[in-house]
Design goal:
The chain is α+β, with helices and mostly antiparallel strands. Helix content is 21%, strand content 31%.
Length: 262
């Protein structure tokens, strides 16, 4: 090969190498510009957080801090602002110091049933009970409970009328006799799923306060059962009974003084 041809090949090779170097440099500069000069600020927790944990109380306690990480090390969907955590609950555990992926939060899953995972045909209803009436707060998401209700001195009208007069504002009947039913306890709903719990819990022999001294339990109820529970909360006394895993609740006949003292 002639000396001129060799020089031409060398020149072309050097030009290609230079162009490649320029391309890599420009790409690197662009990437650094997109990641704020090479780092991205993400949020991390200063403590381990179990699954099914409400994050709002932790936000109030200052558990989450900003941390700068290399743009190349940012995980997909990393949480970068505390606003993304408000109103959320963990679907999976979060370790102290690790980046928080949005996929670990229940609120971002958009699963059927919304944030609480309400079963189809049901609705979520929250009741607040003193700890003894709510199994001392030893309840968790996914548990099944039976709902009991007691009613005292409920008036029952016995109508034995030959005629009834109805007006726009009232109805009157002859032969109306009002009696008072005995105190009774009934199985209001034999089996209900617990969606979430917030309140006082028992840890060993010591009570750990998470709330105001009451246990707030959110339940998944059929509409008619929700209506009956609201009535029982307003007019009677409600207790929850925790069912063993994989057990089924049972409907029972009402219990009164006569059955207890028999």
């Amino acid at each position: 090969m002639k000396r001129g041809s060799v020089a031409l090949v060398v020149t072309v090779a050097l030009a290609v190498a230079a162009a490649g170097a320029v391309f890599l440099f420009v790409t690197n500069v662009k990437r650094h510009a997109e990641t704020g000069g090479g780092t991205v600020t993400v949020l991390v927790s200063n403590q381990d957080i179990p699954a099914s944990t409400d994050l709002d109380p932790l936000i109030a306690d200052g558990v989450f801090n900003a941390k700068a990480v290399s743009g190349d090390d940012v995980i997909e969907g990393a949480v970068t602002d505390v606003f993304q955590l408000r109103g959320q609950r963990t679907a999976y555990p979060i370790l102290a110091g690790e980046q928080i992926a949005a996929a670990r939060l229940q609120g971002t899953l958009q699963a059927a049933g919304g944030l609480l995972g309400i079963p189809e045909g049901h609705q979520a209803l929250t009741i607040a009970l003193e700890p003894p009436r709510a199994v001392a707060g030893a309840l968790g998401e996914g548990d099944e409970v039976a709902i009991y209700a007691s009613f005292d001195n409920v008036p029952v009208a016995q109508v034995r009328a030959k005629s009834v007069t109805v007006t726009e504002s009232s109805a009157t009947a002859t032969g109306v006799k009002t009696t008072v039913s005995p105190t009774q306890t009934v199985v209001l709903v034999p089996q209900v799923q617990v969606l979430s719990v917030y309140g006082s819990i028992l840890s060993g022999s010591q009570e750990v306060q998470q709330g105001s001294g009451q246990v707030s339990v959110t339940l998944a109820l059929l509409p008619e059962d929700a209506q009956r529970l609201v009535f029982a909360m307003e007019q009677g006394t409600v207790w929850l009974g925790l069912l063993p895993p994989n057990a089924s609740g049972r409907g029972l006949k009402p219990v009164s003084f006569a059955q207890v003292l028999r």
